[in-house]
User: Which sequence fits this backbone?
């Protein structure tokens, strides 16, 4: 489960010279070094659509939502977990355009920890959610299917007797094609992917950029069945992998960068977000765009005076509208939500509310087109409870 104890601990984890994955870590961030130009904050016009808090239920304390997928402004499914660390159970909530309600998810026998980290929906009657379940001896892949009314457990591959495995993200193009990514820990952590064919999962070989350092895939997006882009962190920095319909290959492993979210609208437009080393010990936002051939780094704003800004998720309805979300560490004791909008030309900060005086974070955002504009639902955590915000 994604838990953040304090600003100091989060920043230390980012700036540590060598990131190491640990079982149960929800956000794996590469340590960053070097001096890179810090960016100036830009605030979007307050008029028009805006973010507002949506009341969201909790099954326990603590509770968090880690992934969300929207089919329309009146149908989104969010997933996460609830319960004390070491005894978490899955949490699933459904948005009907007016409110969120808890949707029961199936129990798993013999599991001490059960978490859902990512979700992808292609219709009102088909979603896949992925995560992990900890059983005696190590982590086991967790995957579930939504049929429009209930969740059911899927049979997932078993990876070795002692492997700890965590799936972070899934992207479905159709009900017969989904790609899920994450990592499993031998020594060191290795990137992992598996493909859904409509009836079963099969593992797919993913190359690592190092045999001695951790490789972790945080997010995946598949605009077609023959193109998926997965992002994360590798031995020296960001890791971008590409699926061509048959095999995975490494596209980039740029040093001092870390990518946490990616969304592809087509084979010629993808947006990826994350964080990178700033001036001194600062950590600043990172946004990159793919045009079908090359990746380019875009200027993305930061909150003035903040020691660290992160973009953890991104969603796009087209080439002229993307919404990225994450966290601003703040210069005081409050960690705040951070949302930024892409208009086809530039990124700008969009004001988003906070409900906690200590911790506020958005883990995932999903956007879809609506009458007269765009609709987004963002999910995360405020203090020890779920946080859900609506953009419309």
Assistant:
């Amino acid at each position: 489960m994604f838990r953040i104890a304090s600003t100091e601990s989060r920043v230390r984890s980012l700036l540590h010279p060598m990131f190491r994955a640990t079982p149960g870590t929800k956000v794996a961030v590469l340590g960053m070094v070097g001096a890179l130009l810090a960016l100036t904050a830009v605030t979007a016009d307050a008029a028009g659509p805006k973010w507002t808090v949506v009341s969201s239920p909790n099954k326990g304390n603590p509770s968090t939502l880690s992934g969300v997928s929207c089919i329309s402004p009146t149908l989104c499914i969010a997933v996460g977990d609830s319960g004390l660390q070491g005894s978490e159970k899955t949490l699933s909530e459904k948005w009907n355009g007016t409110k969120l309600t808890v949707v029961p998810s199936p129990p798993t026998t013999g599991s001490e920890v059960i978490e859902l980290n990512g979700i992808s929906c292609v219709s009102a009657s088909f979603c896949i959610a992925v995560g992990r379940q900890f059983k005696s001896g190590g982590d086991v892949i967790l995957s579930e299917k939504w049929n429009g009314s209930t969740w059911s457990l899927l049979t997932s591959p078993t990876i070795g007797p002692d492997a700890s495995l965590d799936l972070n993200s899934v992207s479905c193009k159709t009900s017969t094609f989904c790609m899920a990514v994450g990592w499993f820990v031998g020594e060191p952590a290795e990137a992992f992917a598996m493909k859904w064919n409509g009836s079963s999962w099969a593992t797919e070989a993913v190359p690592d950029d190092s045999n001695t350092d951790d490789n972790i895939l945080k997010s995946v997006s598949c605009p077609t069945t023959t193109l998926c882009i997965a992002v994360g962190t590798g031995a020296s920095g960001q890791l971008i992998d590409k699926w061509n319909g048959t095999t995975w290959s490494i596209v980039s492993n740029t040093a001092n960068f870390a990518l946490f979210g990616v969304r592809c609208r087509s084979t010629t437009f993808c947006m990826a977000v994350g964080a990178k080393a700033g001036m001194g010990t600062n950590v600043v936002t990172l946004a990159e765009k793919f045009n079908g051939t090359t990746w380019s780094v875009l200027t993305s704003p930061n909150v003035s005076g903040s020691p660290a800004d992160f973009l953890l998720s991104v969603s796009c309805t087209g080439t002229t509208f993307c919404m990225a979300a994450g966290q601003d560490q703040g210069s005081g004791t409050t960690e705040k939500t951070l949302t930024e909008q892409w208009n086809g030309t530039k990124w700008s900060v969009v004001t988003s509310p906070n409900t906690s005086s200590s911790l506020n974070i958005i883990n995932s955002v999903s956007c879809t087109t609506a009458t007269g504009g765009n609709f987004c639902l963002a999910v995360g955590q405020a203090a020890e409870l779920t946080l859900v915000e609506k953009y419309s």
User: Anything to note?
Assistant: Residues 7-391 form a domain with the Methylamine Dehydrogenase; Chain H fold (CATH 2.130.10.10). The longest strand covers residues 111-123.
